[in-house]
Amino acid sequence: MYDLVIIGSGPAGLSAAVYAKRACLDLVLLEKEPMGGGQIIYTEQVDNYLGLPETNGFDLSQKFEQHAKELGAPTKTGEVASVEPVDHDWKVVLASGEELLAKTVLLATGAGHRTLGVPGEKELTGAGVSYCATCDGAFFRNKTVAVVGGGDVALEDALYLAKGCEKVYLIHRRKELRGAKILQEQVEKEEKIIFLPDTVVTAIHGDNKVESVILAGRDKGEERELVLDGIFIAVGMNPQTACVAGTLALDNGYVPAGEEGITEKPGLFVAGDVRTKRLRQIVTAVSDGANAVASITEYLTKNGN
Known about the structure:
Elements: E1 2-7, H1 11-22, E2 27-31, H2 57-70, E3 75-77, E4 80-86, E5 89-94, E6 99-107, E7 111-113, E8 129-130, H3 133-136, E9 144-148, H4 152-162, E10 167-171, H5 181-189, E11 193-196, E12 199-205, E13 212-217, E14 223-227, E15 230-233, E16 237-239, E17 268-270, H6 282-302
Parallel strand pairs: 1-2, 1-6, 2-3, 6-17, 8-15, 9-10, 9-15, 10-11
Antiparallel strand pairs: 4-5, 5-6, 7-16, 12-13, 13-14
Helix pairs in contact: 1-2, 1-6, 4-5
């Protein structure tokens, strides 16, 4: 019987492991991938984590992981199939059939960006293909970029990028944008933003970095090349919540919770990109992990553990 099972070893999970070990909790950190670190291991450059400018995601994730290991946080490789309540405790069932019992569980499984699935996207991710304008926008100052999507995030990204970029193409597969009316009005007024409706990206080209994209009309299918320096894809996220889908009521796939990480189920907590929140960044994930452990420690104390 563990005090805490942490599911996911990205920044939120590793931060939670550090704080949990400092609180002398008996824990185990579960990760389904051979290497921990979460999404940031694929980030070529991280320039907005306080105190560590001009680092890269892989190195930063290794520092996070090493910190947790040095404190003695045990890790276990395995994919979680389900998280189920058992009396006043929790049962974590792995895909292998193995079961772990815990007084508390922290879900830190993250959320993955939806992709376009076009040629060149995977190969040039981190080299001009980005899924986060807040993270990478500064690298494209005075350059030409495109944003793909028509919802609130896409419109906010286009407006954010227009502050520093020379030109921003907003590419959407429908005739009309789906974002909030106030954002649409701001986009229409911004001279740097060029809206391309009824258009899809069919390929991304470049030699070691993005140089152009191939566009096609959604109905006519006519293709043309658009020269640019970067492309920001904002077509949604896929929160990794399958293991709690039958246990928690979800909000568009995300786990509803405030900064304390407390869910509707006593003993089940959440941290990082998988919870409902405004900003999904490394720094907010790390903060979530710390806050969640504070809530977990309080919960265990109140329940006499």
